[in-house]
Amino acid sequence: MKKARNFSLWTEKGYELLAIEGLDGIQVERLARMLQLNKSGFYHYFGDLQGFCDELMVLHLRNADLYMRDLKEINSIDPEFLNLLVKYKTPIMFQLQLIRSKNNEAFYKAAEKIDQREEIILRSLWTDYIGFHDNPDLAIRYYTIVRDMLYARLSFQNMNYPYLRSVMNEARELMQQIVRQSAVEIENR
Amino acid sequence: MPTVMEKASKSSLWTEEGYELFAAEGLDGIQVERLSRILQLNKSSFYHYFVDMEGFCHELIQLHRKKIDLLLLDVLEIKKLDPDYLLLLVRYTSTVMFQVQLTRNKDQYSFYDASTEIDLRVSHGVRHLWVDYLGSNANSEHVMRYYDFVRDMFYTRVSFRNFNFQFLYNLITDAKVLIDQVNERVSPGTAKTHSRHLDDSV
């Protein structure tokens, strides 16, 4: 039991650190100091840093499954989806770090797959939110731009409902204004 | 005793190397120990010129501003976003990647203010190119807000490894095709862009 508990102490802390600082935040020495555990335990459980990162990915995929399960249950972008993002703050920040850092191609590809799973589930809600009922493909392509824009702007500090709401509102209003402008210009021709 | 010129050139050895490392790896890449090993200079010289890491980062941002000035001067000479501006960005890879790292480390030092100010200057400088690229029927206010979205998407997706003309071309083509298709949706028959994607690169 103690063995299992220590194993997850390492991975939980490592997961959190990677979410905050990216892969560079993961140093055995530092983790051991934070957890007040001996470094030998780390090598015993994970072999090396790569083995540890592989375990962090296992944990991330498990969190992604839980997130997708909850995502299927929601009925609106605002407030339900936004609240879900806040609830899954650490996994979302972990995901963001994987997408930004392309040093490990396998991790990057795994993160891309997670994003794609999210797009499929979110498709209908996002289409409703943007108002592109006749063209869900177009709506979801716009979503990928908005999500990546959000990944660039997010931090642990601003990952809260009011901030997410303001960004999503801005994204929706921008698209509505582009559509309105386009209609006006056609009328004026 | 070192002359003023010698002093300046020694301090610029630290900043030039630090600039490249920061552009490639962000704040974690610039450790005094590592820099001193690469440059084969004594660490005491670092503290003599910059006092601490905050002082060093301040100098790096000053250097970055100068490089951005040069980039914006070159922007004045070009006519088109594709290919002129894209080629320019590739020529300024380190400068662009330094800006990317500033935005990714925005919680540190004064990086947030510096990156926001520089983003604003660059978006002002390339405004005419972007508006022209998206088409004459584009309202420039909306188009520039869209530019901010696309730039931030670029910040998320880019790395030193995938930073090349092809990557930039695919990114802006996707952005333009989307806007053209929105216009096409409002008024069928108006879409102008045909996606001509080059091979994808990660």
Descriptive tags:
A: 189 residues; mainly alpha; 9 helices; 81% helix; B: mainly alpha; 73% helix; elongated
General description of the model:
The complex is a heterodimer of chains A (189) and B (202). Chain A is mainly α and 189 residues long. Chain A is 81% helix and 0% strand. Chain A contains 9 helices and no strands. The longest helix of chain A is centred in the C-terminal third of the chain and has 28 residues. Chain B is mainly α. Chain B is built from 9 helices and no strands.
What's the quick description here?
The complex is a heterodimer of chains A (189) and B (202). By secondary structure, chain A is mostly helical.
Q: How much of the polypeptide of chain A forms β-strand, as a percent range?
A: under 5%
List the helices and strands of chain A in order.
HHHHHHHHH
Which sequence of SSEs, written as H and E, runs from N to C of chain B?
Answer: HHHHHHHHH
Number of contiguous helices of chain B: 9
Average pLDDT rating of chain A: 93
DSSP helix count of chain A? 9
Shape of chain A: elongated
Query: Rg of chain A to the nearest angstrom?
Result: 20 Å
Largest interface: A-B, 36 and 36 residues
Low-confidence stretches of chain A: none
- Unreliable stretches of chain B (pLDDT < 50, length at least 5) are 193-202
Layout of strands and helices, then pairs:
The complex is a heterodimer of chains A (189) and B (202).
Chain A: H1 2-21, H2 28-35, H3 39-46, H4 49-71, H5 77-87, H6 89-100, H7 105-130, H8 136-153, H9 161-188
Chain B: H1 4-25, H2 32-39, H3 43-50, H4 53-75, H5 81-91, H6 93-104, H7 111-134, H8 140-157, H9 165-186
Helix pairs in contact in B: 1-4, 1-6, 4-7, 6-7, 7-8
